[in-house]
Amino acid sequence: MDRSVNRKIGFLGGTFDPIHYGHLRLAEEAYFTFNLERVYFLPSKIPPHKLGRKITSPGIRIQIIRAAIEDNFNFDIETHDLDIDRPSYTVDTLRDLREKYSGDEIFFIIGMDSFKNLHTWKNFMELFPLANFVVARRPRHSTILFEKREEFFPPFDEKTIEEFEVDFKKRKLIHKKSGNSILFFDFTLLEISSSEIRKNVREGKSIKYLLPDAVIEIIEKNSLYME
Question: pTM above the 0.90 mark?
């Protein structure tokens, strides 16, 4: 692969079924806030928390994402999770990405709700040496002022908390062993969800202005989300 080394690159994971403006705006703001060189959308094949739900085929979802980002040269797709035949556990994915993008600094983008449940993820303490975590705060979390140590942590036990140093000024946590950070930033909330879009399609309601027109065309052409 012909690419520069020592880049700062972001990864935004999700089912993207379908991708919408909320995903795109989050990626855009993370890109500029942390001076990233590229943000990769990382569609999952078998999300562990969505086992049993019918998910649109990988080929169609790749097509949808490409249509949504075709005019933004700062965005790309990483199909790693679609190319493997196992549930998409973040710790396993990050290990593989760490090897594939060796020499690059990885920033894994998640929302505050996901961060608060991070302790429930598979082998979650093994995540921090693998990447920096970028945590996007929605306006409803604005009461968190990051003035007290406990405001930085979800329900971590004390042993886990001791693994980090707190930088109050820069609003971040530093993993002592690896030097990687957990960074917090505020982003523009667009109250859009893929499940609501699918519901609107089933009920014959408009989905215009919730996602790019190019994505709507693919949805209509393939009669997606009708059942």
Answer: yes
In contact, 164 and 182? CB cutoff 8 Å: yes
DSSP designation for 80? G
152-166: pLDDT as tens digits: 787 788 888 899 999
Highest mean pLDDT among 34-43, 51-60, 119-128, 134-143: 34-43
Q: Say how many residues make up the chain.
A: 227
Burial of 195 (0-12, 13-18, 19+ CB in 10 A): exposed
Question: What pLDDT does residue 78 have?
Answer: 98
Residue 18: asked if its preceding bond is cis (omega within 30°), the reply is: yes
Break the chain into its structural domains and give their ranges.
8-221
Q: Where are the alpha helices (DSSP H) in the chain?
A: 21-33, 58-69, 90-100, 112-116, 158-161, 194-202, 213-221
Domain 8-221 belongs to what architecture? 3-Layer(aba) Sandwich (3.40)
Q: Which residues are CB-contacts of 159 (< 8 A; sequence separation ≥ 6)?
A: none
DSSP one-letter code for 53: S
92: CB partners within 8 A, 6+ apart:
86, 122
Q: Give tens-digit pLDDT for 32-52.
A: 999 999 999 999 987 665 656
